[in-house]
Every structure is written in C-alpha cells, then in structure tokens.
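Example record for the data management plan.
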Amino acid sequence: MPVFADVLPVSCLLEEAVRGVETPVKAGTLECKATGMKWKPQPLLLRHGRFNQRVVLRPLEPGIPLPSFSHRHHSPHVLQPIAAIRDSPSGDTWRGSKCYLAFPFCQYGNLVEYVMTQKAMDVRLSARHAAMIARDVVLGVEGLLENDCEHSPAQVVSSIMPTKIFIALNGTAKVMAPINTGRPQSWRKMAMTMKWMSPEEVQDVPVERSNMWQVISYRVGLLLYCLGSQDAGIGHMVPNFVQDAPNPNQVDMSQCQQSGLLRQLVEECLRLGQLCVPPPRDILMSMLDAIIMG
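Corresponding structural encoding:
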C-alpha cells in the first residue's frame, strides 16, 4: 500500500516569508516551484496536520505510482519523501494536475553544491570531515537496505554518488532513497552515473547480497577519493581515471591529495592495496572512526 493515505492539496504549501508575510502557493504553479531557478527547487513551507517544515518538491510523471516507502525509516541518514501533493486546490486530478513528492529541505543541498559552497568560501574539506560524510553514507545505505522492500540492492547502492547525497543544516549527510519519478535521464546524467559505478556494475554483474559490500565499499572509496582530490575543490566531484587501464574505473591516485590513514582507506576501498580486496565493513567503519577522532 502507498505510504501516503491521502494526496494533499496545494493549499498546504506556503512560500517563504517576505517581510513577515507568508504567501499561499497557487494551484498550477508547482512545476516552476519544483524546477526553481537554474534547475534548483525552491524550498516551500508544508503545513498540514503534523507537518510544519520546509520541503522541496520533485514531480512524478503521469502514470507513475506513488512510492510505498515505510515510515520505519527513522535513520537520520536517509532522505525520503514525507508527503504527496497534487497541484490542485483540493488534491484531486484538477485539470490533469501532476503529483509531487515533498522531501525535507536540506539547507546545504547535495554534496556537489556543498563542496562548491565550501570552495567559494576558500574552505577545503578536511580528512575528518570527509570521513564523517562517508560514515553517514554507509549508515544511510544500510538503513535503506534493512527497511526498504521495494528496491533491489542495486537500486539502493546507486544512490552512493554526490548528486544523491544531501547535507543538512547540522552537517549530517543523508542518502536519498531511490525514487522512480518517470523522468528520463539526460545523456550527461547517464555518463555521470557511469563514473560512479564499481567494476562489478560496469561489467553488468548483478548486485546481490553476496557481492553488495564490494560495490558499497568501492563507491565509498570513489567518494573519499573525490573529497580528497584536486577536483573536489572545483566542485564537480568527478573521479579521475587512468587512461587505457586494464580494470574499469581505475582511478588516478596521483590526483588524491589525502595522506596517512585516509589515503590508505581509499586505496583499500578501490582495491589498490596489497590484497586487492575491499576492507570488511567493521574494518572500514573503525578506520573512519579513527580518522574522525584524529
């Protein structure tokens, strides 16, 4: 069953207060609110029953069913929709209006936007900060895998990429739950997605419980690599690969500026260490904790 008992009307939404005045959102305007300026969704206030918080909207294409996520996702490291809203006065299919999913607003945006903001302030992410983000990501993915019966492990681990990791005001990293909105990906987004795949995914090996940790640890290694590479300061968060390497998605470690334990962890996750195998989950988390504790 869908988690949303009712689809809420657009009257539940308000625009941000300007000079102390909050403006109700008009029916028929949610598409531009969800798109926003420069394709960045505009935060809105959702007030209905137990809801009283800032949200951003993502549209569902006609014919796409509402997701059936469980409310058992209480993990602070998972970002999932909290309500469904239709762009109509009463929540019905007024004039063929679309349905939108409301997600909690993360003040710092996704990880790409966060890194770009830090760069604009001439702040470079420290090893401790990178390790905190990676730890949150692992916990978020584990939370989804434990409680999400709708999506396969492959769909869940595909969320380990910068555009699907969001940073809240308190600095917590949140992994977005996989959502099928029905909107086709551009070729540019598809190419970017390929750059964040593990060797197993590139080679079309099915991601199952038996090999899932290998995929998770590799993607976490790519994430840590980008947070500690020269490109991370630019903000586009794209791994640098070795040209014509025998292994797919083999990164160029000469671009990684991290050192010590964090660099060792990156090499282990990317299978560049002596054993060429990913570290077990408890070893990876203990290494991240050691980096965080300094």
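Summary line stored alongside the record: The chain has two domains: 10-104, 111-293.
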